[in-house]
Amino acid sequence: MKQPKIKIPKTLLETIFDAIGITFYLLAIIYLAMVFGGLPDRVPGHFNGAGEVDRWGSKMELIILPLVGGGLWLLFTVLEKYPHVYNYINLREDNLEAQYRNGRLMLNVLKNEIVLFFSMITYSMIQIAQGEAEGLGRIFLPVFLGIILVSLFVFMFRMVRM
Questions:
Q1: Using only C-alpha atoms, what is the Rg of the chain?
Q2: 8 Å CB contact between 21 and 115
Q3: Is 100:150 a contact under the CB 8 Å cutoff?
């Protein structure tokens, strides 16, 4: 079944989430730009599952996370405009708009969670490079994965219930 295209205006909640995500993203970039010249040549390049630095690299590598985070944010923003191409469970004519809104909100939430985490990691990498911290901490990875998985579960649950 070819899913119909319908125009659904962006909600206030999606706009608020975007504003929060972009604000933290821009703050991370501004902070990186402000301290970049004073950073040591070696900065954390990778972390193990316990949040400990397991590879050091050039400070130029600090630019990678904001680029990837910004790229993912843009990609998800484009995908939000096409909810009719997503895969749905239980899609019917009477719940079409609600399913599209739910799918689009799911992408919006995931996109902003990802950009927030990338911003946090960028900030943490700078702190570690400056000797202000030792690692991300043991709970960073479980919390990150937990938030993403709980978000997915909530939206999938909502989709099935519609």
A1: 19
A2: yes
A3: no
Residues 69 and 120: beta-carbon distance below 8 Å: no
pLDDT in tens, the chain (162 residues): 578 888 899 999 999 999 999 999 999 999 999 999 999 999 999 999 899 999 999 999 999 999 999 999 999 999 999 998 888 887 888 888 888 999 999 999 999 999 999 999 999 999 999 999 888 989 999 999 999 999 999 999 998 888
Angle at 20 between CA 39 and CA 120, to 5 degrees: 30
Read off the tokens for 80: 């939000």
The amino acid that residue 67 corresponds to is: L
3-state SS string over 102-130?
HHHHHHHHHHHHHHHHHHHHHHHHHHHHC
CA dist 90 and 115 (Å) reads 30
Global confidence as pTM: 0.88
For the chain, the domains span: 12-161
